[in-house]
Every structure is written in structure tokens, then in C-alpha cells.
Specification:
By secondary structure, chain A is of the alpha/beta class. Chain A contains 19 helices and eight strands. The N and C termini of chain B lie far apart (67 Å). Classes of the chains: A alpha/beta, B alpha+beta.
Chain lengths: 446, 365
């Protein structure tokens, strides 16, 4: 069965042959089928001019070609609908120094922030896979990579990426319904619909979308009823070939309390991680952000920024803002030594010292075992692995000596510690789940 | 087709209609004026599919007919044609215009493709003084955005409330609002007229005397003014809720003579940089307003204006053009500048007239 979009495209091809080119370009530009009801095709046209003219002059031609393509068509009605023209994304030449009236805001229908587009996204090695997948989704929604799940730690542009998909859709395929929401908003909606007894309208609301983008799905794991509703919604949309896009802060397989049926559904699509940006990407990011503010900061200062602030893009932005405000106040260029003074106290300059007890506690919690059992002389498998992880992290991340680690963890020999560290180091290369867990724990320890 | 008419009248009508003809349209016939002689009436029609006009001209018609003639050619001929009466006759594909002292044969364009103008039923309408509405559009239209990214900002908003019609336009850097009395029509929904069409409406209204009635539906706005029927597309969109950002109270108020302010801005423009950057210093102690502009390549200038000031000392930066724009809508002797501190928008008003308001955002430097 052809969709109404294809129906109209085919009809246009036919009409183009029978009508002169100027006429075709003038009157059939920006037309689309709004809906089909009982054999009546409702044709959306941009203005009353077009409506009056199409209905008097071309009605017969339109009806004939539509009938030729679909026997069910009985009549054509013309409605004036907002012609969501392809807005050409010209760069606005605006003096950056004039502040704007706060008119621009979140797009109310789709909940998307228009600031997040592919144009403003910086692609580097750290996110190029995710970016490529997003592009594929834009080209073949519902077919390529459905669902698409992007995961990774905070502040790496996951939200930017998925909102770009939505914004691209909103502009280029305005007849498709796009919705962006956080899992928290979804759950709030669901709960309030339960309270007011409007579950049906809640279901209808979410089931109408052609593209659903949901941020931070890991939070769903804790909400039993919402999770169930989400599962049904997921099935409904996925069966209808509607595109689903999610983000999460970790791989779905290691999200606790997430049912297997949901995990396997996530796995059926595409799961891609974004990693912290490499130094070159960090440099590109600060440079483009600085350009956005229309200020000139010497490259060596930007390089210094990219060197010192590792990982999170948000922190990078914060550090840059710090420099910008300084620049504004002093009205003279910033040097590397200034930057050093200013950025003292941010980034890697201060590696937080964490007590060994705290590390043990966090990791024991993570694996769901008794904290005390780590210090005991037990060799139960479920204890040994976490203990080895603790040793490994204490050595790698906190640079504690092997003998000290052994002593603190229940008086073990330093060779035991060395063995444990080696073991984990080897396992990382082959065991991706272990790798995930380590990343997760490192985040918790920050 | 054959008719006889007054040259001067036809010229006036053609010069109005020619403004609506679109030279670069996909459809060649849109670059022409359609002349319809039917049932004893002579009507000129032209449209660019955004807006359109129909103008009736008094004429003696001896033979009915319809013809489309390129607007620029017809206008060019008539603007220089001498002679009181003009006769027009169609001979095959050529239309022949003849006065006592000039004659021209103009090639016609096939007119089958010339569109009909949308009609708007009289269900919803409002009336006001034509000159008032023209003035309201004139006072705000220059603020409309030039970029097509947001059609709702590229237009002039009209709406009616509590006996007034309010016209607003903004490009998100500044905003102008003008209220005029409404004669009848009550509450009017938000009508977004594309700024270009609004300018044409203004020129037609300028010539009108007395009251005009405008009809509208969700997509179209029309009016009959004397012998002219005008219609424009309305933009389907939501104008930003600008009332929210209008400050209610102010910390500083400055009153200056309009002439002084205009002259200062004009000369400061010479020294302003490419952003037209002008800084405004309020000196309550000296009862003065200091305006400074500086361009490293030209030099700098400081103008001091005597002012009545209530409030604190303050310096702010603005785009000088935006400030100067406000003055084309303010005709009174003195203006009031209302300020709420650095970084906040300011409001410029006529001290004697509350119906106009101009809001401008500062530059952040």
C-alpha cells in the first residue's frame, strides 16, 4: 500500500506532464495531502490564491490523476494549511553584539530546542559513529537502525545529537510528527494521566508520533508501571515502522532493574556509544564555541584549555565562559599564563582524593555485595571479581602502591594485588561488559 | 475589446496596479496587468500571489474583452503619454493605445493563466479611519524582520482590543507598537500581514479619505477603498507574546527634545563603526545625556544633549540606527526614554502621546 505522501508524489509526476512548467511550479509548489477520509483527498495548499485557482482551473486534472493511481478516490477538497516551506538555513548576518529579545524558545509542538542542529554539532572520532548512525536515521527513518540508542557519560552531546535528528525532521518533513521528551516527562505524563483517568488519551498522544526521541531512558528502569507502558508504546511504534531514538548514560545491558524484554528490544536496533572527545576534537570544540561568541582567543590558549580539561564538553564550555567573562572585563587579550591562573581549580588540576574505604563501599554497592566481605578471606567468585576490580582501580586511578592496597584490603600479599591488576587489565581487552562496568564505576567515583 | 477613457485616470490606476505585478515570477503572466472590459465596467487586475488589487476605472466600453499587458511596458508608455482621452482596441494579439498625441501597439500575453483574486466574505470585519491605519503601519513596519526564516517576524501584526487597533512589528532586536482608535469591529483576532503587503496596503490607504472597512478570514484580508479592491495573504503563525517582555516600571527616565536627539544621532552615525555602535551616558548631576560614537578608522565624537533626568547615572550601548529608527514614528516635540539598568531593553515614547511605543535591546559590550 502506498502512503499518502507517495500517492501525491506520483500524482505530481503525472500532473507535471500535462501542465505547463511555469504553471506547475507556481501552483503545485508546497502542496501536500493532509489526509484522506472516505475517499475524499484533502489537499493542503499554501494560500487562498492557490486554493481558488487549483479548484477552478486544475480540479479535473488533479482528480483524474489521483483516480488513476488509487481507485478509492472520489473527490478532492482543498484546505489552506501552514506551508511548512523548506526554510533555507541561511546564516543570519547579525551583529553578534546586539542581544536579542527573548523570543526564541523551545518549539512548542515538538519540544525541540531549535539551537541543536547538525550544523552546530562538532563531529570527531569520539562521536563520528553516532553521528553517522543519526544521519542514516534521518535518511531512512524507521528502516535504518530502529531503535537507535546512544549512550555515554554526561556532557558529550548526546542530547544535541538526538535533538538534531528531530530538528532535521521538523524542518525537512514537516508533515511528520516529531516529539522529544525526557523519560522523566514521559513518566510524569503517564502518572498524571492515571490520576485524571485519561490513560487512553495519553496512549493516543504518544502513539501518533512518527519520530519519538526520548532522553535518559535509564531512569525508566526504576519506574515499574511507566516501564510497562513504555514497553507497549515501544512495540506499537516499532511495529508501525516509526523511528525511535533514545539516549542513556550506560549500555542497556548493564542498567539494573531493566527487564530482559526491553534490553533485547534495544539490542535489536543500533546501540552506539559516545566516548569523551580526544584532544583534537576538544580543540575543535573550544575553537568553534569561541567563534560563536565572536571573540578572538589565541590558539595556544585554546590548546591549553583542550589539554587541561579532559572529558566532559560541558566543563570545557564552562572553562571557556570563564575566559570570556575575563576578556570582557579586561578588554585585553588573554595569554596562556592568564588562563593558567584562571583555570586553577577546574579540570584535572585537582584530582579528587578518595579514601580507600569509599572506593570499596562504592564498588561493593555497585555489585550488590556486602562491603565487609571484600576484606574477608573468602574466595567466592561473586566476591573475588569485585575485589580484583577494586585493586585494579586503586592502582590505576589513584596510584596507590601494591603493598598498601594489599594491607588495606584485609592484609593480602602485594603479589596477590599485582596478579589481580594484571588479570583485570587482560580481561578488559576481551570483555566489553567489564569495560562498561569500569566506566560506570569511574563515573561514580568522580 | 474596445474602450475609451481619461488618460490621467488610467495612468493613476496602472501605476498602482503595476506595483503588484511580479517580474520574477515563475508564471510570466504575473508580470502583466489584466485589463477586463465587461458589462460596462473597466477593471485592472494584478497580483503577485501574495497580495493583489483590482481597480475600477471609469470608461466608455464599446466592445467587451479581456487582455493581459506587461505592466512595465504599459506603465512606461502611459507615464509619458500626452493627450486627454485614450482609446484602446485589440487587434489580434496586439493591443493598440491611442491618445490625441501618442499611440502605441503593445503585444499582449495569453491571459488564460491569470489567476482570480481571492474574495473574503464580509462575516468578520472592522472599520477605522484609513489615514490612522496607514499611519499605524508606517510607524511599525520598518521594524519587521528582513529574514524569511521566521515569517511571523517578517510581518506586521494587527489586532483589536478594547476599542483600539494595535499594530506591532519586531525583528527581535527592536519592537514598535502603535495603537489607533477602532470605529467598529470589536475584538479582532491576531492578523499577521506580510510586511511587504502591509506597505502596499499603506500606500493605498494613504490616498483614501474617511473610514475604511477591512474583511478578513483565517487566511486572507481584503478591503474596498474607493474604486480599489485590495487583498493580501495572512501568515499562519503565532506572533511572539511580546507583552510579556515589555517592562512595566522603570528605574530611570530621561526626557529630551526630539530635534536634539535626532541631530545628535545623525552626526554620530558618521563616526560609528560597522555595528553602528553608539554609547549613551546618563548624567543626572549635569542634567545631560552624552552620546558617543567611535571608529578607529575615522575618529570619534561626543554629543551632549540637555535632558531632564529622574534616576541614576548609567552608560549603555546601542545600535544607533535602531535608535534613529524610532524617531520616524515620533512627531512630538520631546521624547521620553525609559530605562531599567544595563543590559535591559529600553523604551522610547513620545512624551505627549501614549499610543506609540518603541522598544530596543542594548548591545552587550
Amino acid at each position: 500500500m502506498t502512503t499518502i505522501k507517495e500517492l501525491w508524489e506520483n500524482a505530481l509526476v503525472e500532473l507535471e506532464l500535462t501542465i505547463s512548467k511555469p504553471n506547475f511550479n507556481t501552483w503545485f509548489k508546497d502542496t501536500h495531502i493532509v489526509r484522506v477520509e472516505d475517499g475524499v483527498v484533502f489537499l493542503g495548499v499554501p494560500s487562498q490564491f492557490a486554493r481558488d485557482w487549483l479548484s477552478t482551473k486544475f480540479h479535473k486534472d488533479i482528480l483524474r490523476s489521483l483516480r488513476g493511481l488509487s481507485e478509492n478516490v472520489r473527490n478532492v477538497e482543498y484546505v489552506i494549511s501552514r506551508n511548512a516551506k523548506k526554510v533555507n538555513e541561511e546564516v543570519r548576518v547579525v551583529p553578534a553584539t546586539v542581544s536579542e529579545l527573548p523570543l526564541e524558545s523551545i518549539h512548542s509542538k515538538t519540544n525541540l530546542n531549535p539551537r541543536f542542529t547538525f550544523n552546530t554539532l562538532i563531529v570527531g572520532a569520539f562521536n563520528e559513529l553516532a553521528h553517522a548512525a543519526a544521519q542514516a536515521v534521518v535518511r531512512k527513518p524507521g528502516i535504518a537502525y530502529n531503535p537507535l540508542l546512544i549512550y555515554g557519560p554526561t556532557g558529550l552531546g548526546k542530547t544535541h545529537l538526538i535533538q538534531s535528528i528531530g530538528n532535521h525532521f521538523r524542518i525537512n518533513a514537516p508533515d511528520r510528527k516529531v516529539q522529544y521528551c525526557t523519560s522523566e516527562k514521559f513518566s510524569m505524563d503517564y502518572v498524571s494521566s492515571l490520576q485524571s483517568g485519561k490513560v487512553q488519551s495519553f496512549k493516543e498522544k504518544y502513539r501518533q508520533y512518527d519520530l519519538l526521541i526520548m532522553d535518559d531512558v535509564q531512569f525508566l528502569a526504576k519506574m515499574e508501571k511507566t516501564k510497562e507502558e513504555f514497553f507497549h508504546l515501544f512495540n506499537y511504534l516499532h511495529d508501525g515502522n516509526k523511528q525511535l531514538v533514545f539516549t542513556s548514560d550506560q549500555h542497556p545491558n548493564i542498567i539494573q532493574n531493566l527487564e530482559d524484554r526491553l534490553k533485547s528490544r534495544f539490542n535489536a536496533g543500533m546501540i552506539i556509544s559516545v566516548t569523551p572527545p580526544d584532544r583534537e576534537s576538544r580543540f575543535a570544540i573550544v575553537r568553534s564555541k569561541a567563534a560563536l561568541h565572536n571573540v578572538i582567543i589565541p590558539d595556544e590558549v585554546l590548546e591549553y584549555l583542550a589539554d587541561t580539561i579532559e572529558g566532559n564538553v560541558r566543563e570545557l564550555e564552562g572553562a571557556l565562559n570563564l575566559l570570556l567573562i575575563q576578556l570582557e572585563m579586561r578588554q585585553e587579550p588573554i595569554t596562556v599564563s592568564d588562563a593558567k591562573v584562571l583555570l586553577r581549580g577546574t579540570g584535572n588540576a585537582t584530582k579528587k582524593s578518595v579514601s580507600i574505604q569509599e572506593v570499596v563501599k562504592t564498588i561493593a554497592n555497585f555489585y550488590g555485595i556486602e562491603e565487609g566481605s571484600i576484606y574477608e578471606k573468602t574466595r567466592r567468585k561473586e566476591i573475588v571479581r569485585p575485589r580484583q576490580v577494586i585493586m585494579f582501580l586503586l592502582r590505576e586511578d589513584f596510584k596507590i602502591s601494591f603493598p598498601t592496597i594489599g594491607e588495606k584490603l584485609g592484609g593480602r600479599d602485594h603479589t596477590t594485588v599485582i596478579h589481580s591488576c594484571e588479570k583485570i587489565k587482560n580481561d578488559i581487552t576481551s570483555d566489553s561488559i567489564l569495560n562498561q562496568e569500569l566506566n560506570q564505576i569511574r563515573l561514580m567515583l568522580k | 475589446m474596445k474602450f475609451e477613457t481619461n488618460t490621467e485616470h488610467l495612468f493613476t490606476a496602472v501605476s498602482t496596479a503595476a506595483r503588484f505585478a511580479e517580474k520574477r515570477a515563475n508564471l510570466p503572466v504575473l508580470a502583466s496587468i489584466l485589463i477586463v472590459a465587461e458589462g460596462g465596467r473597466l477593471v485592472l487586475r494584478s497580483t503577485n500571489l501574495e497580495c493583489g488589487v483590482e481597480i475600477q476605472v471609469a470608461a466608455k466600453i464599446s466592445e467587451d474583452g479581456i487582455v493581459a499587458i506587461p505592466a512595465s511596458v504599459l506603465l512606461g508608455f502611459l507615464s509619458n503619454a500626452r493627450g486627454k482621452t485614450l482609446t484602446c482596441s485589440l487587434e489580434g494579439e496586439v493591443c493598440r493605445f491611442e491618445t490625441e498625441r501618442a499611440q502605441a501597439s503593445i503585444k499582449t500575453i495569453p491571459n488564460d493563466d491569470f489567476p482570480v483574486l481571492p474574495r473574503v466574505s464580509a462575516e468578520r470585519s472592522f472599520t477605522c479611519k484609513g489615514a490612522d491605519l496607514a499611519k499605524a503601519i508606517h510607524n511599525v513596519a520598518y521594524c519587521a524582520s528582513l529574514s524569511a526564516i521566521k515569517p511571523e517576524l517578517q510581518s506586521v501584526l494587527l489586532y483589536g482590543e478594547s476599542g483600539k487597533i494595535i499594530a506591532v512589528a519586531t525583528d527581535s532586536f527592536r519592537l514598535a507598537e502603535k495603537a489607533i482608535p477602532l470605529r467598529s469591529g470589536g475584538d479582532i483576532q491576531q492578523l499577521l500581514i506580510p510586511a511587504r503587503n502591509a506597505a502596499e496596503l499603506m500606500r493605498i490607504l494613504d490616498a483614501a479619505s474617511g473610514e475604511v472597512e477591512l474583511y478578513y478570514n483565517d487566511n486572507q484580508l481584503s478591503t474596498h477603498i474607493d474604486s480599489i479592491y485590495y487583498t493580501s495573504r495572512l501568515i499562519d503563525g503565532a506572533f511572539p507574546n511580546y507583552r510579556q517582555i515589555l517592562p512595566k516600571s522603570f528605574s530611570t527616565e530621561v526626557v529630551v527634545l526630539r530635534e536634539d536627539f535626532a541631530a545628535a544621532l545623525k552626526s554620530l552615525q558618521i563616526f560609528a563603526d560597522k555595528f553602528s555602535h553608539i554609547s549613551l551616558s546618563i548624567k543626572p548631576a549635569e542634567k545631560a545625556l552624552l552620546l558617543t560614537s567611535r571608529n578607529p578608522e575615522v575618529g570619534e565624537q561626543v554629543s551632549t544633549i540637555r535632558a531632564t533626568i529622574a534616576g541614576e547615572e548609567l552608560t549603555m550601548s546601542f545600535n544607533g540606527r535602531y535608535l534613529a529608527d524610532s524617531l520616524q514614528a515620533i512627531t512630538g516635540e520631546s521624547i521620553r526614554i525609559c530605562i531599567n539598568g544595563a543590559g535591559k531593553p529600553i523604551i522610547i515614547k513620545n512624551t505627549a502621546d501614549e499610543s506609540f511605543l518603541y522598544l530596543v535591546m542594548p548591545m552587550n559590550r
